[in-house]
Amino acid sequence: xxxxxxxxxxxxxxxxxxxxxxxxxxxxxxxxxxxxxxxxxxxxxxxxxxxxxxxxxxxxxxxxxxxxxxxxxxxxxxxxxxxxxxxxxxxxxxxxxxxxxxxxxxxxxxxxxxxxxxxxxxxxxxxxxxxxxxxxxxxxxxxxxxxxxxxxxxxxxxxxxxxxxxxxxxxxxxxxxxxxxxxxxxxxxxxxxxxxxxxxxxxxxxxxxxxxxxxxxxxxxxxxxxxxxxxxxxxxxxxxxxxxxxxxxxxxxxxxxxxxxxxxxxxxxxxxxxxxxxxxxxxxxxxxxxxxxxxxxxxxxxxxxxxxxxxxxxxxxxxxxxxxxxxxxxxxxxxxxxxxxxxxxxx
Length: 347
What we know:
Blueprint: E1 2-6, H1 13-17, E2 21-25, H2 32-35, E3 40-43, H3 51-54, E4 61-64, H4 74-79, E5 83-85, H5 92-108, E6 118-122, H6 126-137, E7 141-145, H7 147-155, H8 169-175, H9 183-189, E8 192-195, H10 213-217, E9 224-227, H11 236-245, E10 250-253, H12 264-269, E11 272-273, H13 282-300, H14 319-328, H15 333-338
Parallel strand pairs: 1-2, 1-3, 3-4, 4-5, 6-7, 6-8, 8-9, 9-10, 10-11
Helix pairs in contact: 5-6
């Protein structure tokens, strides 16, 4: 069995090499020629998996070590007999840790207060549901917006396989009883807004540019704005205008339109800016690698393979240090992301 793997996926290569012929490459080197003789492909979001990459290859399964899979042309893969898998929930705890650190820093700096303030969470999947629990623990009033979940509660019918967004049936049942409101209500009542949705352009609830000029104009409390989902969920020019006009009081931005290129004006305007590493804990990476290994062993009928164990934590997580690095050197976005000093979730 031949497997091509993005070399920046940790905790994976050594155990996989025990059962397969592995070629580890940087994302930019994963080309049609490189994967032509591969039976499996293991990627991150930087590799676009579509006909231009996979047509004419021997690839039978594409596994992405990420929650998101908008970089995979799933329709083309399915139509051409190529199985694809992602790693739902793998970095949910890591993103939650990032959001909590951002909230605590903004509270320390007087940008927000925690106890008694209202946080609006857009998207209640693996990540958003964890952020909800964390926010309640911090004393925040929580409002949630999740149109597919609201439709499920209203009709009893699942929308777009929405169960895959949750850890289990019990979690979904609990969330069906929580305070779900529409986006307009969220915009009117939130002191903090945080986005945890996939990037979609089609279907009944597209998320592409859902935070646009009209959305920012509808805000009533000048909230702190946090985006750790996908850059395209937010219209960059609208976000910059909202910061400049005071429609939002400050921003925490981990994801960017046009990555790895960074809008330099937004980099300057936002208080916390990081290179798409909110989910980059060692624990989340290890979980993603294990999910990839599980998918490959199940598909090829191999014995179980265990991912390597992350090293212990060396220091508490300093979100401001991550921000300072990107502000100082935005042109090294991809290098910072690929060589990120993975943090532990338990400190």
